[in-house]
Amino acid sequence: MEAFLSSTLGVAIAEIGDKTQLLALFLAARFSQKNAIVAGIFVATLLNHLFSAVLGVWLAQFVSPDTVKWIVGGSFIAVGLWLLLPDKDDNPDSRWLKYGAFTATVLLFFMAEIGDKTQIATVLLAAKYQSLFWVVCGSTLGLMLANVPVVYLGEMLMKKIPAKTVRIAACALFCALGVMTLAGGGISLH
Description:
Elements: H1 2-15, H2 19-30, H3 34-61, H4 65-82, H5 101-113, H6 117-129, H7 132-160, H8 163-183
């Protein structure tokens, strides 16, 4: 259950103000089919985070628990510090928009998540907890919790959430996870 809660909270907070959240805002402004956008975000996130979690679990199988502890702990801290940097407002590639709300959302969200903070966090969480199912469920839920309100409430919500405060809170959360990982006795690979 700790893997699920940590993944949900970590990804939800890290996603606020992220480029994929800006993408959700753009897609909501572009398409009127809000449910199709939400379904597309879910499918893209589930596929991307499943791949990420499999990678994290796989990597942890080939590295000693002590090495995994140092890599994961240090990486959590690095991701935490990375969260302090605001994302650039990249405009989505308009060639995908012709495929409609659902397909455009799946394609654009999947591509935007590649190498994203939340994807890297999912790899790290899976390596730490060795729980593919709970990390994927938690990270997907976290991303949905951060993006679904944006699809339906859009600009009004974004104006009320100070991005700098959220980035600082996310940084603190990931740095705390890193310190707790480094302070622990290792990560169980069983």
